[in-house]
């Protein structure tokens, strides 16, 4: 898979937003539609207030929905509330222990909180459950680089199944280690 196989970013978000808005037109209390709009507001619009409103509504409607709980966690991290983000992702991982995304998300939360070795451990667990996942290799590469192990980071970036990320990871490691000519190549 190559990143060029994906829809253009703006098109994908527009399609998702339209689908969620259509769902809310049919059912204003559609919790998953509110969650999706919260996710879009977080990652695409950068409108954290709107994201919080949508996630609050979604969680009021379905407080035990693990997908909604998981989708809301990154907003906490973006607000600098890393401890709460970790707690939400730990809750998700405990309740859905066979879902590789739960460990990947928890690892990302640990990374944001600068808990590099915990981040690596969670990404390894995600890969144990889903060996072909892309994200864990990237997050482990970042974490290993932050831990001062550029060789291990380079090896991890090389394991991602997406060539664009392999090249990007290699350039990042070379840049951080002062190999500017190699990074630019």
Q: What does this 3D model show about the protein?
A:
The chain is mostly helical. 77% of the residues lie in helices and 0% in strands. The chain contains eleven helices and no strands. Helix 2 runs antiparallel to helix 3 and helix 9 (150-159) packs antiparallel against helix 10.
Order of SSEs: HHHHHHHHHHH
Radius of gyration, taken over Cα atoms and rounded to an integer in Å: 18 Å
Structural class: mainly alpha
Shape: globular
> Average pLDDT across residues?
94
Q: What fraction strand? A: under 5%
What is the count of β-strands? 0
Biggest sheet features: none
Number of helices: 11
Helix content: over 70%
Q: Which parts are unreliable, with pLDDT below 50 for 5 consecutive residues or more?
A: none
Distance between the termini: 23 Å
Briefly summarize what is shown.
This protein has helices spanning 9-26, 31-45, 48-61, 66-78, 82-95, 100-112, 116-129, 135-146, 150-159, 163-176, 180-184. By secondary structure, the protein is an all-alpha fold.
Keywords:
mainly alpha, globular, 185 residues
Strand-helix topology:
Elements: H1 9-26, H2 31-45, H3 48-61, H4 66-78, H5 82-95, H6 100-112, H7 116-129, H8 135-146, H9 150-159, H10 163-176, H11 180-184
Helix pairs in contact: 1-2, 2-3, 2-4, 3-4, 4-5, 5-6, 6-7, 6-8, 7-8, 8-9, 8-10, 9-10
């Amino acid at each position: 898979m190559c990143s060029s196989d994906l829809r253009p970013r703006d098109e994908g978000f527009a399609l998702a937003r339209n689908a969620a808005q259509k769902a809310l037109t049919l059912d204003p209390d559609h919790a998953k539609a509110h969650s999706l709009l919260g996710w879009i507001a977080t990652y695409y619009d950068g409108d954290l207030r709107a994201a919080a409103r949508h996630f609050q509504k979604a969680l009021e409607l379905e407080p035990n929905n693990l997908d909604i709980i998981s989708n809301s966690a990154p907003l906490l991290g973006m607000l600098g509330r890393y401890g709460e983000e970790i707690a939400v992702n730990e809750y998700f991982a405990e309740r859905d222990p066979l879902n590789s995304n739960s460990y990947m998300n928890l690892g990302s939360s640990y990374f944001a909180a600068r808990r590099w070795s915990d981040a690596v451990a969670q990404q390894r667990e995600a890969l144990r459950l889903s060996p072909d996942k892309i994200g864990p290799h990237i997050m482990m590469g970042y974490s290993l680089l932050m831990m001062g192990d550029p060789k291990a980071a380079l090896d991890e970036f090389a394991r991602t199944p997406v060539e664009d990320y392999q090249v990007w990871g290699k350039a990042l490691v070379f840049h951080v280690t002062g190999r500017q000519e190699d990074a630019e190549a």
